[in-house]
């Protein structure tokens, strides 16, 4: 039975660390980085890459479209 | 005595309030003061600056091109205002986040690790008071108790419990002022 | 009682409105004067003096609320900034035509259009030549300090009621946003309804009680009547010129060159004068405090003394025309000013004075434009 | 019995109210404005509130209302009467403040002032004369001009596709929490005149009780603008205007009918 | 499987639309304006109509929409966007003309332009961002500010008695024959984003079919103005804004729900 | 083809709008110019040329519809009268700031306020000094006949597109309401959408097709950019003064006294000149056709020839200031004008000329007011 | 049994001859005069005085309030 | 030739249209013409007037104070314009409704029973054409067929069937012109 594996790529410079992508991630993949970007924001990153399903929930709620989403099928 | 100061940094760094406290402090010792902010749609993270003048004479222009002292809290401001310091004047800055350091050799330059020390004090928001302290070390133009009185005036009642912390921050700033010489850099 | 405070110009004005015993403020938010309504809402003057503060749905609604309040003899004021003031022009013309006392504040930003929110003085023409339609003028006060932002409120109301005419306080983003020490006047009691009915019973529409009914209108379908109305207005303006023109002279006694500037430009020019004097240049400053009535006579007299005049304004050249009309072209008059929200520095002003006046004779004035764009 | 024996002061059962001036009305013969003026003044007279009444005149044929209504009045800029009335009633809360406006004034240029005064629930009365046209300026199309109706700016009849539908502003303001009493009346027959007067009376009573805004629309003829005789105009009005603008109460005691 | 093996062009399932410029959004972190901008541009992209689209920006935080939306745009005076859009769509009937406006712009100063453009049934889309406050100028009260809600001009909370009730302009315009599709959406969760995008798509499809005016309200947060974190703001919005401004379609295919 | 007709000024203007190939008219009724929209609605230009005519809900909506249309490169015009023009001031300032081509017509009535519906020229200041906020000017054409009401429409559009700037046709109740013979120009074809996309592709927002997107805005949050914009505007105005200033001289060659008048006052003054000549008085008339740019140079030169100048305007004294600025106070310049809707007669003008100029030397100009109220 | 007798008095100068008083008069008492008043209007008058009941219908619909109404009880 | 005329009366009396037809007639014979009406909220029964100028030179002012001819149709207009007739000029009026007759002796005065004759013609609206006829009898400045052509131009097609009636009215006016001498009056 085929399972999907996802991944997100965050544009650390356009991310404003607003965190609205966190609650919509059902797998709690996303957290905010300790250090800041040039604008002084703690940007988002994949804290739990393995859990990402590539559902795009985070990306479509991101006001700044800082997230790109990737997905592949992997056989269990 | 007339002291013409510019304070510049990010919106969130307490630039305007630092200037406000300076102005209030001057007022506490019966000086003429003016406080001229940059203003506009202050989106978070935007830059802000304020021109503060303390003087024992009537102040003419609140808006100036050159200053006795520039207090700089981020790179944009460094780029914009380094040259606005009068020859022989003072440039005080927080090195945190500064990649291109000042290069002028005809002025006095000082560093103060505002942000870092604030974290040590356990309140990032207090860094502007640390920097204020550092400035007063360089130019003791207002007495400390007048500064405290100024803070009282400018803070709403409900924040007055923070005054001791502010005092602590100011002294910390005074103790941690570091002179900086552009020469070193230019030597390398 | 009187108080010494550190305040923004906008806040000082708002506080002065309450202390002047105003009855109402109607406004709509716009940078750089939004602090006025914000301060008033926070202060709850309704509790302090019974004064009413209302955020209208637009500047047009606000100026017409002012018209309504003024028609009943109440002390009423509104404030806005350039684009909002343009929207008020019909209402302002109505106030002038119906001969109603009211105060309008314009904290000017750079135009035209949406322009910039930064300081400017580009609404001079609109303010003194009548931005609205028809033959009318506004009495225009130009504060140059936070103290004057406070003091001119009561002055404006006094003039408004002395002449039953709208008065404009023409400020700018610098004076509105800066903080300075300000001596607040004592609280004046608000005039009571009965006092209004007593005092203004001959015109205010407060309900006809023991008198003939009153009518407030700016309409006269009979041209003879309308012309009489216009003449009545012109007589008021003559009287304003005779009795209520205001200005300030700084270092003019020995001046060989003169700067004319108002509002924030006067403050900055004052520093330029200091710099000039340091250089040994005998420069003086004449600051019009009222833009209408304009200090024609003092300028006319100074024209016999100085070699040239520089009109310094944060615009592309507006007051310079009134300066020329005042001195009747007896000496060269040029303009200097930055625009678009850029504020000229004292150094720039001095430089312009030297280039355009001191090291340069008169030039043909019908080519003014050239001189006015920097 | 001889007419002259009947026409004696003691037998008089009706005459013009003293709250209308002797100045001859500038309105066209048969224009509803006159009747609406008189009813309003009769109500104020009967309530004995003339000393506490302040009226706001619009820009329109009734711009001269202040020449005819023998009360304190202010003349407003086109469409802005509700803004004036707001300020006056806020500053004189115990006065009876009303506006008298036409459809161009209230529903075109004055839309924002009307909607927001109603939404704030100002304690005033708005008397709204809907004659489906701009009378004063010579019969141009108004927001209330009926579909297909000819006017000087819709000479081939109002075209819904390009000019929009006749605007039921009264139904709109009735939707707002701020309005307390909203009704539509007419003054072209004795029956309607009596109803309309009751409505105006109720509106002014609401001010006394500080109930919020009362909105009284009066569908009326503009026989000049419609290019008909007054009686023709009234019949046309019954057949056409009332079909689109049905008479009756729309909101009473703050409750939609 | 390694993340880097997944992050390959061929595996990409979502990225920012090319119809948004590279210019960093001037909006506060977590502000709904950004999402609304992106959805609008995604729809125009997917419909392949960018060459025929003309947008009208308001005065408000989104005044700079033209810096971010990579399409032809005109910036309107405060509140007048519907007037501009009317003219543009009349003169370019085959173009997709839309306005993007805030609540102060559309429901306060622009009330008359909004009501009359809707009443004329202009063949345009109005995207209405209702964040219950004036964001641009620093958080003053808007017509849509909730009862008791604090703002810099209602620092003690909106007082219905003196400031009026929050205005449901969307329900009002739905009453007008000229509006064809009227809906209220939000963009704070993935579910709502997907719904909102469908609504915007339908609105633009209506232009193609010349159906008249489509009005898409998006209830959004102004976390700066509300003085909350973005996520706090979104929760507060669900609990308070949605209670007064319920989400969902109000008028579909010209029929009120 | 061209046609000779007897028409009202307002009708001639409306017909010329269609024949000029305009794309749209947006307006709102107001006396004394309502015939413009009435004529257009009756003519159904939609059928004749495809031109669109829409009655807006207000003057404000109308001017913003104009802004929208103009931003897409269409030929658009609106008309109103004084109070309505005051309401358009914000929109006009936006048009100037956004550098959009558009034509605005003001058929002036007497103000201030609701004033009178009778003819007036009291909106001169508002028209030439900028009734709206900010640093901008309007190119102002002042027709003095029904023929010019017709001819100036195309001229106005040409200037509007030459400079991408709003143009004002400043008429009055006399010229708008009177009937005269008028030679109508041939119908010009309307520019097609594709031609617009071709011609104005570098700025018009017609949908981005095969080019970078266009943006129309008057906003520049960066002051440096905003100042550049203002300078760009000022350069346009300089160029207008250099290339497109217009005026007419009547009997000036041997004139010892000069009347300056525009619009209906120029027509009436022409008769006054005839009466004067009959009396053996050498009087000439200079008629500014463009009020901005104002004929400064021709006046400056005439100042060397004539003994005095009377500025005749249907107002309390407005253009007189520009006349004085032009002649640089080399000769006495006085004002004469009736107000409130009363139209001065040729006899009155001659009388004023004799009293104020011929039998009277110069007077102190900073007392202008007195001379300006009759 | 008591019957009422009415009468109207028309202000011939303020009457504009608009005729809206005619249809509301159930007894058709009112007609317009042949001659005109100073403003050139054919003013209203009681053509059938005996029929007038003094119901005031005409007076209250008169926009110009040109009609005053009088009424007396008369025993039949 | 230049003829400066004012026509004044009630709104409903066809004052403006009479002037319009005069102007059109002048145009038909290639003269310069101007027609300057009073305007405003024309409530029924209001007064109206129009200044008409026919000339073979370019017309300067369309607005005048004194006239060669005044055509007066009601008392208000008589009071207002009697003195506006140039010495030696013409005053033509319809005595109907005139209580105070003209008193000037330095001008020519004529009467025309426009209203009365119109009723005879069975159409009250035609009185203005009768008066026009009378005027043309006094001052034949335009040829009759040019007047007819002018009427054609000024009337919408749908009214062209009325042209014969108009013609009849004009001739009736020409035939019924009565000179009037103010002296008689002053003798009494
Ligand atoms: C700002 C402004 N715009 C337009 C006008 C011209 N005007 C006067 S009255 C009027 C319309 C009146 O129509 P309505 O409100 O329906 O009242 P009515 O005359 O029909 O009673 C207009 C457009 C004006 N005086 N002021
Ligand atoms: C005529 C005019 N009045 C006022 C303003 C000031 N102003 C700019 S944005 C704004 C309100 C914006 O609020 P909203 O429409 O709700 O949009 P948001 O910023 O909340 O997205 C105001 C009042 C202006 N620019 N022009
Ligand atoms: S939503 Fe977007 S901007 Fe906000 S934290 Fe997540 S990635 Fe960053
Ligand atoms: S024009 Fe119409 S509304 Fe005005 S008075 Fe005449 S009938 Fe009445
Ligand atoms: S102020 Fe409010 S609306 Fe404006 S960008 Fe910030 S969050 Fe968004
Ligand atoms: S209703 Fe009045 S005005 Fe009309 S005809 Fe009858 S009495 Fe005369």
Order of helical and strand elements of chain D: HEHEHEHEHHEEEHHEHEHHEE
CA gyration radius of chain A, whole angstroms: 13 Å
Structural class of chain D: alpha/beta
Number of strands of chain D: 11
- Please summarize the sheet with the most strands of chain D: 8 strands, mixed
Straight-line N-to-C gap of chain A: 6 Å
Structural class of chain A: mainly beta
Number of strands of chain A: 4
In whole angstroms, the N-to-C terminal distance of chain D is: 50 Å
Pair with the most extensive interface? C-F, 83 and 83 residues
Mean pLDDT of chain A: 93
What is the beta-strand fraction of chain D?
15-25%
Which term fits the overall shape of chain A?
Answer: elongated
Write down the overall geometry of chain D. globular
Unreliable runs of chain D, pLDDT <50, ≥5 residues? none
Quaternary form: heterooctamer
- Share in β-strands of chain A: 35-45%
Each distinct ligand: thiamine diphosphate, iron/sulfur cluster
What letter string, H or E per element, gives the SSE order of chain A? EEEHE
Number of helices of chain A: 1
How is the largest sheet of chain D built, in terms of strand order? 3-2-4-5-9-8-10-11
């Amino acid at each position: 039975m085929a399972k999907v594996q996802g991944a997100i790529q965050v544009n650390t410079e356009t991310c404003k660390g607003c965190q609205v992508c966190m609650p919509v991630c059902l797998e709690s993949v996303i957290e905010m980085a300790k250090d800041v970007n040039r604008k002084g924001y703690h940007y988002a990153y994949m804290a739990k890459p393995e859990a990402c399903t590539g559902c795009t929930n985070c990306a479509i709620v991101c006001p700044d479209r800082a997230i790109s989403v990737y997905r592949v099928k992997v056989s269990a | 005595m007339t002291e013409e100061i510019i304070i510049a940094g990010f919106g969130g760094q307490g630039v305007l309030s630092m200037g406000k406290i300076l102005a209030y402090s001057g007022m506490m010792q019966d000086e003429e003061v003016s406080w001229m902010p940059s203003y506009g749609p202050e989106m978070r993270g935007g830059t802000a600056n304020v021109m503060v003048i303390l003087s024992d004479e009537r102040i003419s222009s609140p808006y100036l091109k050159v200053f006795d002292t520039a207090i700089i809290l981020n790179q944009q401001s460094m780029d914009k205002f380094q040259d606005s310091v009068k020859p022989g004047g003072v440039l005080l800055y927080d090195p945190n986040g500064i990649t291109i350091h000042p290069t002028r050799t005809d002025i006095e330059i000082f560093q103060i690790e505002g942000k870092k020390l604030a974290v040590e004090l356990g309140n990032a928001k207090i860094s502007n008071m640390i920097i204020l302290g550092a400035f007063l070390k360089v130019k003791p133009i207002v007495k400390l108790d007048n500064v405290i009185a100024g803070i009282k005036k400018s803070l709403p009642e409900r924040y007055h419990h923070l005054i001791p912390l502010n005092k602590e921050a100011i002294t910390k700033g005074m103790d941690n002022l570091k002179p900086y010489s552009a020469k070193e850099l230019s030597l390398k | 009682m009187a108080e010494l405070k550190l305040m923004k110009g906008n806040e000082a004005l708002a506080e002065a409105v309450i202390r002047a015993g105003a009855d109402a403020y109607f406004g709509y938010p716009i940078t750089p004067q939004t602090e006025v309504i914000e301060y008033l809402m926070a202060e709850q003057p309704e509790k302090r003096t019974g004064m009413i503060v209302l955020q209208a749905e637009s500047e047009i609604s606000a100026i017409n609320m002012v018209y309504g309040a003024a028609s009943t003899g109440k002390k009423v004021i509104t404030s806005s900034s350039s684009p909002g003031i343009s929207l008020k022009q019909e209402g302002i013309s109505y106030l002038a035509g119906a001969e109603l006392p009211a105060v309008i504040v314009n904290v000017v930003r750079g135009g035209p259009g949406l322009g910039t929110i930064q300081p400017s003085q580009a609404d001079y023409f609109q303010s003194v030549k009548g931005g609205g339609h028809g033959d009318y003028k506004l009495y225009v006060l130009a504060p140059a300090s936070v103290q004057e932002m406070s003091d001119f409120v009561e002055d404006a109301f006094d003039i408004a009621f002395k002449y039953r005419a709208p008065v404009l306080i023409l400020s700018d983003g610098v004076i509105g946003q800066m903080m300075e020490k300000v001596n607040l006047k004592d609280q004046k009691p608000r005039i009571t309804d009965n006092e209004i009915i007593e005092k203004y019973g001959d015109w205010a529409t407060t309900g006809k009680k023991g008198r003939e009914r009153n009518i407030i209108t700016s309409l006269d379908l009979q041209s003879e009547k309308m012309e009489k109305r216009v003449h009545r207005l012109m007589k008021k303006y003559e009287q304003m010129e005779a009795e209520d023109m205001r200005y300030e002279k700084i270092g003019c006694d020995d001046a060989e060159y003169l700067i004319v500037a108002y509002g924030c430009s006067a403050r900055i020019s004052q520093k330029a004068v200091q710099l000039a004097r340091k250089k040994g240049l005998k420069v003086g400053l004449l600051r019009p405090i009222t833009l209408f009535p304009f200090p024609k006579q003092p300028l006319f007299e100074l024209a016999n003394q100085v070699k040239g005049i520089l009109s310094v304004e944060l615009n592309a050249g507006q007051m310079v025309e009134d300066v020329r009309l005042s001195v009747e072209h007896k000496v060269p008059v040029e303009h200097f000013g930055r625009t678009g929200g850029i504020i000229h520095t004292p150094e720039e002003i001095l430089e312009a004075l030297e280039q355009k006046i001191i090291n340069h004779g008169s030039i043909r004035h019908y080519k003014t434009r050239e001189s006015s764009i920097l | 019995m001889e007419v002259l024996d009947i026409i004696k002061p003691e037998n008089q059962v009706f005459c013009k109210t003293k709250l209308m001036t002797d100045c001859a009305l500038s309105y066209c013969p048969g224009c509803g404005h006159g009747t609406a003026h008189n009813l309003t003044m009769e109500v104020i007279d009967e309530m004995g509130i003339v000393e506490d009444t302040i009226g706001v005149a619009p820009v329109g044929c009734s711009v001269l209302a202040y020449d005819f209504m023998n009360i304190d009045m202010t003349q407003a800029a086109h469409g802005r009467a509700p803004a004036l009335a707001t300020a006056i009633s806020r500053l004189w809360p115990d006065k009876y403040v009303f506006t008298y406006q036409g459809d161009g004034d209230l529903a075109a240029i004055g839309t924002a002032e009307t909607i927001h005064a109603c939404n704030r629930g100002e304690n005033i009365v708005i008397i709204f004369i809907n004659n489906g046209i701009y009378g004063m300026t010579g019969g141009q199309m108004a927001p209330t001009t009926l579909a297909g109706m000819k006017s000087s700016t819709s000479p081939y009849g109002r075209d819904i596709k390009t000019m929009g539908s006749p605007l039921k502003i009264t139904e709109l303001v009735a939707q707002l929490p701020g309005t307390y009493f909203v009704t539509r009346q007419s003054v072209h027959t004795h029956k309607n005149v009596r109803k309309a007067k009751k409505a105006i009376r109720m509106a002014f009573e609401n001010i006394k009780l500080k109930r919020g805004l009362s909105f009284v629309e009066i569908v009326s003829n503009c026989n000049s603008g419609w290019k008909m005789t007054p009686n023709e105009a009234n019949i046309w009005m019954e057949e056409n205007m009332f079909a689109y603008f049905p008479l009756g109460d729309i909101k009473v005691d703050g409750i939609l009918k």
